[in-house]
Design the sequence.
């Protein structure tokens, strides 16, 4: 489906008296915003068009749900004080903006060469990324907020599913709670997976709603991991990185996996 056709479908579903929609033909984006506050969401239609062929109306329903809730959150007031148990870290790529559309600096920490940690206030059906102005106005200190987020992350459930391919073990965490990729920050989890691994432990967060561990014991394992990570990255709602990581000596190192099935460290 072409972007302009997807644009028409979304415009029909997202129309509301208090909304304005602007289509950028050159960038292939559709912005939906509140007519009064001018706060809104920008959808990149080119990537969504390819997904529509496989997901059809399911994808449209997901987008409408996401936009409706996001706009509702943007145009309501939130507090950090009293909501300490609802603050979590979220993973994003290093290309993700560090400022909001209205120029506010988002709270974040560097993670790897491919990833960055942002912080969010969970609002049940959506969440708000925390900016420094919001944090300051609430009287919350940066270090305290980091500690809250780390504590809350460790309290999240961890359910796993396994798949075996050519003696390699692939383990998936997929709660669809917005924080599956964030579980990569749980060092106890990573160390436990490393202790159980018979070969190299690879870790992948292709998009927000999945965390993949791979116990790789042969070259076939790297090939499968590369294909799997790219597929998830292409189809995810919020892609993060198509590069897996090797977890070794307590550190995550991004790797390229070449056609010869051999892992090559990104810095080589």
Sequence:
């Amino acid at each position: 489906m072409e972007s302009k056709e997807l644009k028409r479908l979304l415009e029909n579903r997202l129309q509301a008296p208090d909304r304005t929609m602007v289509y950028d033909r050159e960038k292939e984006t559709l912005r939906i915003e509140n007519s009064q506050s001018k706060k809104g969401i920008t959808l990149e239609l080119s990537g969504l068009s390819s997904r529509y062929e496989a997901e059809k109306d399911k994808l449209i329903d997901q987008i409408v749900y996401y936009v409706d809730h996001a706009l509702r959150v943007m145009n309501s007031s939130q507090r950090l004080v009293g909501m300490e148990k609802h603050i979590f870290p979220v993973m994003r790529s290093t290309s993700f903006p560090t400022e909001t559309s209205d120029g506010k600096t988002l709270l974040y920490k560097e993670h790897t060469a491919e990833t960055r940690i942002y912080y969010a206030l969970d609002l049940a059906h959506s969440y708000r990324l925390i900016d420094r102005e919001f944090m300051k106005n609430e009287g919350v200190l940066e270090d305290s907020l980091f500690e809250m987020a780390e504590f809350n992350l460790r309290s999240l459930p961890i359910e796993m599913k396994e798949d075996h391919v050519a003696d390699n073990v692939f383990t998936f965490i997929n709660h669809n709670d917005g924080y599956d990729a964030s579980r990569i920050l749980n060092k106890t989890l990573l160390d436990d997976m490393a202790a159980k691994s018979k070969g190299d432990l690879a870790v992948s967060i292709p998009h927000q709603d999945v965390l993949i561990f791979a116990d790789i014991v042969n070259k076939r394992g790297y090939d499968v991991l590369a294909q799997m990570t790219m597929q998830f990255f292409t189809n995810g709602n919020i892609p993060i990185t198509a590069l897996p990581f090797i977890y070794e000596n307590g550190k995550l190192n991004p790797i390229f996996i070449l056609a010869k099935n051999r892992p090559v460290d990104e810095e080589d």
Observations:
- The longest strand covers residues 115-122.
